[in-house]
Amino acid sequence: NLNGGAVFFIFGATGDLAKRKLFPAIFSLYRERKIGEKFAVIGLARRPKTNEQFRDDVYRSIQEFARYKKIDDVEWTAFAEHFTYMSLDINNLEGFRQLNELTQQVEARFNIAGNRLFYLALAPEHFGTVAEHLKAGGLLETDGWHRLVIEKPFGYDQHSAAVLNEEITSVFKEDEIYRIDHYLGKEMVQNIEVLRFSNALFEPLWNNKYIANVQITMSETVGVEERGAYYEKSGALRDMVQNHMLQMLTMIAMEPPSRLHPEAIRDEKVKVLRSLRRFQSREDVLKHVVRGQYTAGTKDGKAMPAYREEPGVNPASVTDTFFAAKLYVDNFRWAGVPFYIRTGKRLATKSTEVVIEFKNVPERMYFAEKNRLEPNLLVIRVNPMEGIYFKMNAKNPESNNDGQPEVIPVAVDFCQSCRVGYNTPEAYERLLYDAVRGDSTYFTRWDEVSLAWQFIDRIAEAWNEDSSDLTYYPAGSWGPEESHQLLARDGFKWWPVQ
Ligand code: BG6
């Protein structure tokens, strides 16, 4: 499955992402025999370290974060052999030449045919330099494939993203660039496509004739932790909305692709982003968007500080830790259907869910006297629970049969994560494996990123004018009241997340 093998270069090998996600992902792929023995990992960071020290780091990261924690001595010795460390100053071209020599030795040892995957778990300001030095250092002069995997944030706005893109595309071709959005690696996000296009039940109803609104929630209980300095500049808008939320929205709204081919799928996603109605003015933004910031609060009896008291945060900060908006996808399928999206830190529950609320049947005609019918809901649970939940109406078996049955909502619940022995692959495992196989379906293409920024920039510009619209919510709550009003004005409400 990995013909010719590959070398994985991990830039930022002493960082958090490598520790929490990348090493455990590589181990799972190894354990599941997806990458065989013809692979090598070269860890790169500035700090000096021996191979032994590096391998100890990898071992600890597996113990703490991997899905498979049990590893015996024989397996560990065989796995650890594949890991090499080199201290590298990315500004020093000479270091890249040495890296190339080291790589050739490693490739010879593991019989790898020049396939090279460069994973940049680094701040984006370094992407350009690394790309340039990879080329100048001779690392791209092999017969095999070369792929660049990069992490978000991809720029700060449309302009900076375009500059960044130019830097990397002067060295790598678009089809060699794998931009990670780890939400696209999640099982249930990938399942959206399967659900929609493999069931006779949904596709005929998936439009403005039958759907009243769509709700996407990504709530987190954590605050900004140690990332205050980064988050101050990004806020929820850039941290979650520009990427994860808009990506989920495109998966829900896209047309069936002509084939299950990466470019065909991404073409459809781009069309959704093109159809997304852009805000025209500050008034327009204020009418459709709510931004909030958490104040001090309590959860389970525990006191939690305000955002402005977090380390690395300006005590007068106006950064958004909560975002809710009403969006429209202006095309034939979705005309008139509001998409409500919300995300925030320090909310009541950690949950990612999509709710499709269907239009009601003409209830006045039938069960009107005794009942207020609840609408049908299709709930796609992404995280931490995985599954699908369908709420429909049925007769209450206990109700008296006096001519008018009592109607109650009942649930059809498919809980994927409840299945015994089920151990879902981590997003990073899937994405890393996809990158190795050369499947870019669940990575974001430049035109998607660019359109998403163009949409976001309008909001950011309106917010920059002044911050009087910033609302506040206590840590541990469900966000500011204004977020509820956004739906109440249309006669809807946020359905409680499970
Ligand atoms: C990251 C954001 O992209 O996604 C974080 O930078 C956020 O702020 C995280 O906490 C959420 O991811 P997940 O997989 O834990 O829902």
UniProtKB/TrEMBL annotation:
<dbReference type="InterPro" id="IPR001282">
    <property type="entry name" value="G6P_DH"/>
</dbReference>
<feature type="binding site">
    <location>
        <position position="152"/>
    </location>
    <ligand>
        <name>NADP(+)</name>
    </ligand>
</feature>
<dbReference type="Pfam" id="PF02781">
    <property type="entry name" value="G6PD_C"/>
</dbReference>
<feature type="domain" description="Glucose-6-phosphate dehydrogenase C-terminal">
    <location>
        <begin position="194"/>
        <end position="495"/>
    </location>
</feature>
<feature type="binding site">
    <location>
        <position position="186"/>
    </location>
    <ligand>
        <name>substrate</name>
    </ligand>
</feature>
<dbReference type="InterPro" id="IPR019796">
    <property type="entry name" value="G6P_DH_AS"/>
</dbReference>
<dbReference type="GO" id="GO:0005829">
    <property type="term" value="C:cytosol"/>
</dbReference>
<dbReference type="InterPro" id="IPR036291">
    <property type="entry name" value="NAD(P)-bd_dom_sf"/>
</dbReference>
<keyword id="KW-0521">NADP</keyword>
<keyword id="KW-0560">Oxidoreductase</keyword>
<dbReference type="GO" id="GO:0050661">
    <property type="term" value="F:NADP binding"/>
</dbReference>
<feature type="domain" description="Glucose-6-phosphate dehydrogenase NAD-binding">
    <location>
        <begin position="10"/>
        <end position="191"/>
    </location>
</feature>
<feature type="binding site">
    <location>
        <position position="345"/>
    </location>
    <ligand>
        <name>substrate</name>
    </ligand>
</feature>
<feature type="binding site">
    <location>
        <position position="182"/>
    </location>
    <ligand>
        <name>substrate</name>
    </ligand>
</feature>
<feature type="binding site">
    <location>
        <position position="220"/>
    </location>
    <ligand>
        <name>substrate</name>
    </ligand>
</feature>
<keyword id="KW-0313">Glucose metabolism</keyword>
<dbReference type="GO" id="GO:0006006">
    <property type="term" value="P:glucose metabolic process"/>
</dbReference>
<protein>
    <recommendedName>
        <fullName>Glucose-6-phosphate 1-dehydrogenase</fullName>
        <ecNumber>1.1.1.49</ecNumber>
    </recommendedName>
</protein>
<dbReference type="GO" id="GO:0004345">
    <property type="term" value="F:glucose-6-phosphate dehydrogenase activity"/>
</dbReference>
<keyword id="KW-0119">Carbohydrate metabolism</keyword>
<dbReference type="InterPro" id="IPR022675">
    <property type="entry name" value="G6P_DH_C"/>
</dbReference>
<feature type="binding site">
    <location>
        <position position="46"/>
    </location>
    <ligand>
        <name>NADP(+)</name>
    </ligand>
</feature>
<feature type="binding site">
    <location>
        <position position="350"/>
    </location>
    <ligand>
        <name>substrate</name>
    </ligand>
</feature>
<comment type="pathway">
    <text>Carbohydrate degradation; pentose phosphate pathway; D-ribulose 5-phosphate from D-glucose 6-phosphate (oxidative stage): step 1/3.</text>
</comment>
<comment type="similarity">
    <text>Belongs to the glucose-6-phosphate dehydrogenase family.</text>
</comment>
<dbReference type="InterPro" id="IPR022674">
    <property type="entry name" value="G6P_DH_NAD-bd"/>
</dbReference>
<feature type="binding site">
    <location>
        <begin position="89"/>
        <end position="90"/>
    </location>
    <ligand>
        <name>NADP(+)</name>
    </ligand>
</feature>
<dbReference type="GO" id="GO:0009051">
    <property type="term" value="P:pentose-phosphate shunt, oxidative branch"/>
</dbReference>
<comment type="function">
    <text>Catalyzes the oxidation of glucose 6-phosphate to 6-phosphogluconolactone.</text>
</comment>
<feature type="binding site">
    <location>
        <position position="239"/>
    </location>
    <ligand>
        <name>substrate</name>
    </ligand>
</feature>
<feature type="binding site">
    <location>
        <begin position="12"/>
        <end position="19"/>
    </location>
    <ligand>
        <name>NADP(+)</name>
    </ligand>
</feature>
<feature type="active site" description="Proton acceptor">
    <location>
        <position position="244"/>
    </location>
</feature>
<dbReference type="Pfam" id="PF00479">
    <property type="entry name" value="G6PD_N"/>
</dbReference>
